[in-house]
């Protein structure tokens, strides 16, 4: 994310608020960025740091070419201090060390920025130590706290921060962002259907396990559609060795659910919503042997299978029963 225009595509409301602050030279001394994982909190915090330090702003956008911008991008700026949990929490010693760092004059200016990731993991002592820091703000210092759980932040800290609420990405936004990052459209659609977290969607897009799982699902459909006796053989030789435990079985069922949902969408002419876009030729082929009613019943059975997994029914038994039900 190099410009506020990029960020507007992800979080339009937060982007406009921060853009206005930059244009009017009213950047707050402390921000709380709260919202679900993968919604752009960390990327925007570094974009804001660039706008804070960049001496060659183009309107409200950092130039991305100067020494300050490039060092912030690479994580090597001496006056930008990211803090991450040490183990499971952010400890008092980390905040104390940060305060000590800030007593020194900046390496190249008096400006300093600290970015606290997973701020909700601060111990009580760390939170109280940070509060003392926030109570005596300096004009040249900016704090950015990032959290997925804003309600866990002390009210006394929240009251000293300008809160920015990040919204979960919708599917289209996530698809566009994945495509912009260089991932193909079919894989972007597939990943965005499984999660609304950009980082997780990006990981899914690059994970061979998910790619193989998608292939196995398509092959299972083919075996089921052929109506022969190989479904159980395929289940034990291919499906179960890949989707080994309960969590992986849930993912496999999600992929199967998406396929049948796409098929129904194809039948009712809602082709713009299809995730398995490279399966359209097979959808056309299957219209002669798989009715909308049968596909809808399969969807219901898959949802029932997912609920059985949640109730800790053995994954092998769940899948064997599901294959029998869909074959009928």
TrEMBL record:
GO biological process, one term: DNA-templated DNA replication
Entry keyword set: Nucleotidyltransferase, Transferase
UniProt-listed Enzyme Commission number(s): 2.7.7.7
Entry superkingdom: Bacteria
Pfam family, one: DNA_pol3_delta2
Cross-referenced SUPFAM superfamilies: P-loop containing nucleoside triphosphate hydrolases (SSF52540)
Enzyme class of the recorded protein, top EC level: transferase
MF-aspect GO terms: 3'-5' exonuclease activity; DNA-directed DNA polymerase activity
NCBIfam families given in the database record: holB, PRK08058.1
Protein name according to UniProt: DNA polymerase III subunit delta
